[in-house]
Amino acid sequence: MVSRIAGHLQKLGHVRQWLTHPSLEGQHSRAARYVFPSLALQIDQLPTFGDNFSYILKPLTKANGSHAMCVDCGDASQTISWLEHIMTTTGEAEQQHQQGNEQETFVMSQLHIWNTHHHWDHCGQNEQLVKWAQTTLSGLDSTGISNTNGTVRVFAQDERVDEITDRVVPGDELQVTDRATCRVIATPGHTNGQCSFLISKTGATAVEGESDNNANDTGDMDQSPQLLFCGDTLFVGGCGRFFDGPAYTSAFETMQKLKQLDQDTLVFCAHEYTQQNLRFVQDMVNERQVVDWVSQPTVNYLADTVAEQRKDKQPTVPSTIGIESEINPFLMASTVDDFALVRDARDNF
Fold first, then answer.
1. Is 139 left (phi over 0), alpha (psi -120 to 50) or beta?
2. Cα 283–chain centre separation
3. What are the CA-CA distances from residue 303 to residues 115, 237, 280 (Å)?
4. Which of 69, 268, 344, 347 shows its CA 20 to 30 Å from the CA of 143?
């Protein structure tokens, strides 16, 4: 398992670039870009507020698509600044992907806002994003009349999400690029209406089951990976506490569902909670010894690794389903009672 963690971090370094911009200064973590040519997709991970992550997804070239996707972008000012930045620059990722071709900037025709749930730090400034998109992306229809319809859409399962235009249901598919598709998964627990977005190569099965336990030790991360944007459903070493009343059974069932994803699935959660989560796990495993289904050496190794990452303000997200299946007591709980024991203990930690 230690080799799985080391291999994951090594491969992240191959697809990640660090980002700098005035809108990203003074944040809790460094901003990062992840490039997946097999999906024709670029993901910008933006730290915001005290510990949130927002994600902006875009096709690598205009041949791959012309709409950007904002996932849980609660800070409209930062998001708009970054969208305007990527619309006027050609980054290293695009340059590498367009070798031998004329360089192109990103011409965005639509903005798609994906929200995992209704909390303010995820969707509280959707109105500003919608107004910006309607103004910035508006064009002329065939009659020469200004047309803003369709320039921005807000996708969510929970009707409490601000500015929602498209209410999704589990199993819905959303086009990401010409090579990648997103499937909506219901993941209740943190809130009753929480959903997650799972991106796979177009035509691939969204839920593959468990893969070889050594699959994450070697090889290339960009071999048609699956990417899970799960909001506050699952964290590195933790999961979101309940806001819509006790949800032990539904949250446990959500964990069981996520465990069935391919072990190499990258988990892009919405908060940098890892150090505190791992302190809790260590307390449960090492000190109180009430959790015996988590490997003590593995969680201790990851805690030490994370401590080094945070010294340099590196994000500890994304993790993988494989890693979480070895160190996350919520994902590893085998019964509702075990899950409830850990949930109650974490709420009082």
1. beta
2. 27
3. 30, 10, 11
4. 69
Q: How far apart are CA 170 and CA 206, in angstroms?
A: 12
How far apart CA 192 and CA 242 sit, in angstroms, is 9
Supply the pTM of this predicted model.
0.91
SS3 content of the chain, % helix, strand, coil (to 5): 35, 25, 45
CB 50, CB 268: distance < 8 Å: no
3-state secondary structure of 270: coil
Q: Is 148 left (phi over 0), alpha (psi -120 to 50) or beta?
A: alpha
**Gap between the Cα atoms of 99 and 93, Å rounded:** 10
Mean predicted confidence (pLDDT) in 258-275: 97
pLDDT in tens, 269-290: 999 999 999 999 999 998 888 8
Average pLDDT over residues 135-164: 76
Q: Angle at which helices 76-86 and 126-136 pack, to 10 degrees?
A: 30
How far lies 57's CA from each of 64, 321, 339, 342, in Å? 12, 21, 33, 34
Question: What pLDDT sits at residue 104?
Answer: 67
Closest CA to 234 of 183, 195, 281, 200: 195
Fill in the DSSP letter of residue 288. S
The DSSP line for 179-212 is: SEEEEEEE--SSSTT-EEEEEEETTS-S------
Give the single-character DSSP code of 240. P
Across the range 151-156, mean pLDDT stands at 95
Choice between 156 and 216, residue whose per-residue pLDDT is larger: 156
